[in-house]
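Entry 0007
Protein: 2Fe-2S ferredoxin-type domain-containing protein
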Amino acid sequence: MTTYKFARATLAVALLRLIVLTLDAAHVAHSFVPSTSSSYIRIKGTTSSSTTTTLHIFGGLKDAFSNDDSLGKAKDAGLSSGPRYNDQVTVNGKPISKVVVDQRVSQVCNAARVKVPYNCQNGECGTCTVKMNGKKVRACVAKVPSGKCAIQTL
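Output (structure tokens):
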């Protein structure tokens, strides 16, 4: 039991030393500001005063995230007029509505419920080749253009 009390006392002393060293380092780095409030401790007829210190670590950052009024009113993030749609897209003769310009052809084929085989998803293997406006393209990397677009599977 005495070993346990000795270990607790040793730990308490080590923690106090760590606190003192931390406060010394803070004092050297001038990162603390003594407060003006003092407290008086009265012990058996004697009076002593103590001054507390307050660490102001984030005091310099309090205005860093405030709003800058000189920038004007905040605008909505994202697309200002929404996505551009292409309603002139057909897959195997079936018209597809609400296709977004620059959307991948593979996604358009999936929306039309047309199976297109895939393998690499990089456009390297050629498994997903389809005809778009008469030209052979890889569906996994090709994008839908604006204007008329006729996609045919092979």
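Curator remark: The first strand starts at residue 32 and ends at 43. Confidence is low (pLDDT under 50) at residues 27-32.
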